Amino acid sequence: MLGRTPGSIEAIRPMKDGVIADFKITKKCCSILFVRFYALAFFHQALKYLFVYLAVQLKLSVVLLKKVLLVQGARDVYLIEESMAAALGAGMAIEEASWAMVIDIGGGTTEIAIMSLNGIVYSDSLRIGGDVFDDTIVKFIRREHAIIIGYSTAEKIKEEARSAFKSSAVKEMQFRGRDVAKGIPVSFNITNTEILQILKEPLKIIIGSIKTALEKIPPKLSSDIAENGLVLTGGGALLDGINKLISQETNLPVRIADDPLTCVARGGGIALNMISQHNIGFLAAE
Ligand SMILES: Nc1ncnc2c1ncn2[C@@H]1O[C@H](COP(=O)(O)OP(=O)(O)OP(=O)(O)O)[C@@H](O)[C@H]1O
Ligand SMILES: [Mg+2]
After folding, report:
1. Residue-wise over 230-249: b if at least 16 C-beta within 10 A, else e?
2. Total domains present in the chain
3. Are residues 125 and 205 in the same domain?
C-alpha cells in the first residue's frame, strides 16, 4: 500500500534502510509473525524444532532486537553476521584458508565482506541498497518527467529495466504515474539507458567500496580473491547486468549466487545445523 493509501490511512515501514525505525510497530509485527509461527509449528507438532533465525548487519545495534525476541518468547537468540549467512547460503567455501569475497546488496544496506577460515577478515556496510535505488528513481521521474510515482512502480521499473549494464539494445517501457501539476493519472515512457544513468551514482558508491576493500587486503591474498571471484547475493544481485558492471570495474570474475534473495535465510539454516560443530562465526549474544 506504500504510496497508494487514502488520506485516512498511513502506510509505514517499521524497518527501513536496515534499521528499526519504529520500535513499537516492529514489536507488533514480530508478535504477529510469532503467533503464526507458533500456530503452524503446533499444528505440525513441531514446536520443539521451532527456531527463529534473524540475520543482522555488522554495524547494527542488535540489543534492541534481541530484547524484542526474548520478550516475545524466544528461548534463545543466536546472532550471525548477514554476510556470513549470505556466504554460506551462496555455497561459498568459507571454511577454507583461501580468501573469499561476498557482496550482499539488500533493501537497506550493502554488506561487503571478505572471509577466510569461517571468520570475517574485512567488512564494510553501506546504507545503499534497493530502497536507495527506488528513491533515486522516484526523484528522477518527478524531476525529469514531472510525474509522481509510488515505490511499487519504482521497484517495477528497477526489475524490468535491464539496467545496471550498458546494453546495445535500447528498450522503452511504459509505466503509469500522476501528473505533478494536474494531479491526474498519466503514462510515461522510460528507456533502459535512462535507468542506467539514474542508478549510476548509487552503483558507483558500491563499486568504490568494493575497490577499497580490494586495496586493503594484502597483495598476496588478492590472488585468492581473483581466483575465487566475487559472489553477489541479496535482491540487488538481480539488477540486470550488475555482475558485468562490477566485473568490468574490478577486473575480477563476478558470480551471482543461485536464488540470491534467499541466500541469507538459507545460510542461517546451514549455520544452525553447524552449531554443534562450534566452528561457525556466531557472534556472542551478550
Ligand atoms: N529483479 C530485481 N531487480 C532489482 N532489484 C530487485 C529485484 N528483486 C528484488 N529486488 C530488490 O531487492 C531488495 C530486497 O533484497 P533483500 O531481500 O536481499 O533485502 P533485505 O535482506 O531485506 O535487506 P537488508 O539486507 O538491507 O536488511 C529490494 O529493494 C527489492 O526491490
Ligand atoms: Mg539482507
Report:
1. bbbbbbbbbbbbbbebbbeb
2. 2
3. yes
- 283/57 Cα distance (integer angstroms): 12
130 lines ligand 1 (CB under 6 A): yes
Q: Is 155 in the pocket of ligand 1 (CB under 6 A)?
A: yes
Residues 123 and 210 in one domain: yes
Ligand 1 atom closest to Cα of residue 105 = 18
Q: Are residues 149 and 247 in the same domain?
A: no
Q: Which of 21-35, 85-99, 219-233, 271-285 has the lowest mean pLDDT?
A: 271-285
Domain enclosing residue 239, as ranges:
92-129+199-261
**Nearest ligand 1 atom, CA 263:** 18
> Is 186 in the same domain as 208?
no
DSSP, res 284: P
- Asked whether 145 lines ligand 1 (CB < 6 A), one says no
> Per residue in 54-84, pLDDT tens?
665 544 556 766 776 677 666 777 778 889 8
Provide the whole-model pTM. 0.84
